[in-house]
Amino acid sequence: xxxxxxxxxxxxxxxxxxxxxxxxxxxxxxxxxxxxxxxxxxxxxxxxxxxxxxxxxxxxxxxxxxxxxxxxxxxxxxxxxxxxxxxxxxxxxxxxxxxxxxxxxxxxxxxxxxxxxxxxxxxxxxxxxxxxxxxxxxxxxxxxxxxxxxxxxxxxxxxxxxxxxxxxxxxxxxxxxxxxxxxxxxxxxxxxxxxxxxxxxxxxxxxxxxxxxxxxxxxxxxxxxxxxxxxxxxxxxxxxxxxxxxxxxxxxxxxxxxxxxxxxxxxxxxxxxxxxxxxxxxxxxxxxxxxxxxxxxxxxxxxxxxxxxxxxxxxxxxxxxxxxxxxxxxxxxxxxxxxxxxxxxxxxxxxxxxxxxxxxxxxxxxxxxxxxxxxxxxxxxxxxxxxxxxxxxxxxxxxxxxxxxxxxxxxxxxxxxxxxxxxxxxxxxxxxxxxxxxxxxxxxxxxxxxxxxxxxxxxxxxxxxxxxxxxxxxxxxxxxxxxxxxxxxxxxxxxxxxxxxxxxxxxxxxxxxxxxxxxxxxxxxxxxxxxxxxxxxxxxxxxxxxxxxxxxxxxxxxxxxxxxxxxxxxxxxxxx
Length: 576
Known about the structure:
The protein is α/β, with parallel strands linked by helices. Helix content is 57%, strand content 11%. A hairpin with a 2-residue loop joins β4 (59-64) and β5 (67-68). The chain starts with a strand and ends in a 5-residue tail after the last helix.
């Protein structure tokens, strides 16, 4: 049984207290199918999220099978399923792949057992015939069935559904409601569905009517119209406006025992009519049948495999990655051809007499200036382009799937496993992008200096921007917001690096620690160029170069800060 006792949820509204839920009380027996209805803004979804533990209540207690959820521990991930309004499936994957991914993240079982679970769930939800169909080709009703299938893989004892019938045609709506009714008959499962529609009320075992955070009624559909003194369900909402919400709540508290007795008789008759035994008060014949959670490594491998599958299925994103990897090094090579000619002219040879020596010095000064400008510019060009790649890699990586991630965390997915899968996936992109940038440009424009040092700083430049933008993505509300902030971060790299124009000392001191492009450029120049080439760069660049070790430390620090920010953002719960 699920019981709510005096549930209140109070929020601050410009200095005034606003009760989203006010002293809500109800009891729902096992094997029961309940609808939560009411006018818009009445607290239906808030109540559902309070049951799920997504929203923390101000006072009151929920009891599950006699267990105080506040004192004795919340629902275990396997005990509860939550189907939100938004899609929880990846459009690029098939129906079967989405269900399999959900099963592998929730259930610790071997492949044969998982196959049986997946096949059973697909059959139960009527999705077997379209198991190989991509989600993007499904109808609205089919997507709702898929959302249910992904929750059923762990056989939850209580299934919470938020507006799963909204936007569906009448036939599809009825099919989904009938499916939910059938699901409530299995293993004594409680199914609670928030709905705006009053068209299928007769299919529910009981109905909770909410009005401005107050529970106005909880009983069978048949007695609902009698209680409100109306002939049909559609007239209930106008009737609610005739009294204050608190009056409705007080009225229900006076009459609920009588209506609950009728509800209990109807509940027993439901199972008798179906030829089934009513579910016992204790879960699963008196024993808690724990569903073991997959290990960290099992969840990590599932998430990583799924991410690479999505990358190769998303043709637009894949071709964008390929285009950037191919075109960006070519752009650097086009600009580097002139710099290569100038490098060949750099020499220490002087004339045989004074006049010739002066003339040679002037010529060398001009060559040195051109060489310094070319070398500095080409190295910075590589760093900036790799920073742009890093931003593209991760700016939408978490924010773009935030709601799916929240749903999977709710179902027991480890935030650490999620973060680790992102780091490994992005590390592969960073390696491919940086190695190809280095190899292609090195072939077209051999660096005169320590090439290994240069490669290390190119890798760190890309990694630093990738992880920092990943941190931004993990802490932003929307993917568009994350993309915009990441673009700003990349856009400020060149002007604030000091590579083009030297910054005032007080500005430079403040900004340089945050500019990864400066540290990658500075480390490549000061830690690996030949002495003559370094002199050439120093002759035209007014910004001072940092020590190689300091540059390495700062860039590694950027990577670590990005990972920490990402972990903080991933652990934070943000459904809206």
